[in-house]
Input
Amino acid sequence: MKVELLHPDLPAAPERSAGGSDAAKLFADVAQALGATLDRADKAENAFAGGAGSLQAAVYERARADVALSVATAAAQRATQAIQSILNMQV
Output
């Protein structure tokens, strides 16, 4: 039995640049910003624990980090649901 690959009747996809796509850069920027927010919260908590910071600053930074993490989680869940809906479509 000989199997031949199917070739779609679509034009070839353009070559991607070495730098990656805009979506990949945006995702990396968002992940970096989320990491920075979590780092600020950690530093504020450690400063309070060490006696160098205030409780207000520690609580505020932790609340900001929690909100940012919740938004990122919700966005990831929505994106996953959208991809699952697309993949479950009848062709």
User: Anything to note?
Assistant: The mean pLDDT is 86. The longest helix spans residues 55-87. Helices lie at 22-49, 55-87. The radius of gyration is 22 Å.
